[in-house]
Amino acid sequence: MMNEFPEGFLWGAATAAHQVEGNNINSDFWVFEHTPGTIFAEPSGDACDHYRLFRKDIQMLHELGLNAYRFSIEWARVEPEPGFISRASLYHYREVLETCHEYGVTPLVTLHHFTSPRWLMKMGGWESPETPARFAAYAEAVMRELGTLIPYVCTINEANIGVLLQLMRFNSGQDGQAPVGMEVSERQKAYNAWMEACARELNSTPERVKNFLFSATDAAIAVVKQAHEQAREAVKAVRPEAQVGITLALSEIQPQPGGEEMAARLRYALYEQFLPAMAGDDFIGVQNYTRMRVGPQGVLPNEEGMELTQMNYEFYPEALEGVIRMVAQAGKPMIVTENGIGTEDDSRRVEFIRRALKGVLRCLADGLDVRGYMYWSLLDNFEWMLGYRPKFGLVAVDRITQERTLKPSARLLGQIARQNRLVD
Ligand code: GCO
């Protein structure tokens, strides 16, 4: 089998502002983390202090041998109040982008990676019909100031996350609605109380903030799709050459006997329904971590005997190949914008990356148009509700001293990138 990647292949690692920068105090998540009764294991705090240490981190990424860096610009910093643009924060991101270019690292910029300004939640968040235009205005402000430095834009990270979370029953019993005739459980009561407190803090209502990522209602999904399309147009109007795409969380859907029909429904909900909104995009951002076995009733539990990651899902690096093959049918260039594993055992990460990349090579051999691979994540960082316990990084971070330590997987990916081939 060929083991070479195409010339110009983007080799990188990804981060997201809230998970690494630290002190993202004007965002909705900061409120969720700090409101009593929080479901977050711990607050994000200083995170990896990447807001201050970005130069070292980008230099380190470059020295490893990687040639691309996917990171996000934080809306809550750029537009701290509606319509008020912070020039100082744009200047910060200018420095981040310039540092990338100094080291010959291609930046892939995400405009929204889960966190939103507090004020957006007050105005109805991702269910408000005003949000697409507000998001597009922010995108335009970013591109006007920084556009010449930004070759790739991911508008919204995992626009389908609301659907995915609902499917995985991540928030089961936490929707504040007990079925008729049933007692509201203690857990649900506590969750509702926390949501009410968050809503007070955000001058909003529990209905508006309860789906603090995106919700899975048709109306909310329509808002997310419109936000993507309007932002893409805003970006293109300022900088037509910028390559624009959305990113989607895609587990490989594997129908089990009798599960074909359900699998087709899930494929539509998680993926196909977003295709019309992506028609004008330049690329598709593929994000994959595991597979999803589907039976007639829905997603099945992990297969017995399978190795699990720290996220409690199956260690299944081959899922990336399956997802790329599905997405390839849309006929657009693909960039793997996230693929990774949460583990304390870095040798499992080494194995994961190798096997995932073998899958990418098989896709390339079949002529599929994969342009790059961004490992999630550069650094061990804030894994949302789970806090700092899951370790996704190529690089470990001491959160007291902020010292960085390369793991063997970092050297492996750097070596593969430098040689642009998978070596045994
Ligand atoms: C996501 C996000 C990342 C996560 C990563 C690991 O895919 O949920 O883009 O922010 O940290 O996926 O779970």
UniProtKB/TrEMBL annotation:
Matching Gene3D superfamilies: Glycosidases
Name of this chain's protein: beta-glucosidase
InterPro entries: GH, Glyco_hydro_1, Glyco_hydro_1_AS
Highest taxon of source: Bacteria
Enzyme Commission number(s): 3.2.1.21
Biological processes, Gene Ontology terms: carbohydrate catabolic process
Enzyme class of the recorded protein, top EC level: hydrolase
GO MF terms held by the record: beta-glucosidase activity
Keywords associated with the record: Glycosidase, Hydrolase
Catalytic residues, chain numbering: E338 (nucleophile)
One Pfam entry name: Glyco_hydro_1
Family the entry assigns: Belongs to the glycosyl hydrolase 1 family.
GO CC annotation terms, alphabetical: cytosol
